[in-house]
Amino acid sequence: MGSIDLNGMADVAGPLQTWVLPALLGLGLASATGLRTFLPLLMLALAARFGLFGIDLNDRMAWLADWPAISALAVAAVVEFIGDKVPVVDHALNVMGAFTRPIAGAVAAGSVFAGVDPMTAAIAGLIVGAPTAFAFNAAQGGARLTSTATTGGLGNPILSFIKDVLSFLMVVLAFLAPILVPVLMVVLAVVVFRLAKRMRGRMDARDGAIRAGAARSS
Hints:
This protein has 218 residues and is mainly α. The chain has one domain. It is built from 7 helices and no strands. The protein has helices at residues 6-33, 39-49, 67-83, 89-111, 118-151, 156-176, 181-217. The N and C termini lie far apart (88 Å).
């Protein structure tokens, strides 16, 4: 029976722990911040604070797990949760999210690169987190605009709650199985796309009914 090459396993485990798993976890967190700015950061901070899921933060981002930061994130998450279900306020939050969510995605992704220096972690966070959060924010923004057009804004609170659930589940699943994050991101993107497509179909049907009614009346 051949012996196990422990040195070879260590050589593989090093890059895996330093780069691959943090990158995958960062992708999952960033996609969640594309739907909610503060909830993923709060969950990350709590996981780091209580040592859950083996989460370690980069030394420069250790403040994220301090109680003042956790308290601020908790308040911000509650405000975002409630405000996103209030007409007008939800639109303002959505506009702000185009700027805040990519930043949150970069912070969340960069924080989990615990095995590299802070500058490298920050760059990795920008590369991994910002574009991912921006893309998912743009997708959910399209779904919200379609919901507003089709329901007059009445369907927006339901859509908002769906985003709450999806963001929460994405973070939990990323914590539990970061290796599956690419698959989870595809699933999440399909769900958001189908929501937008279904709402757009309703909008087209409504417009068609309006045009048909106008044609009959003329």
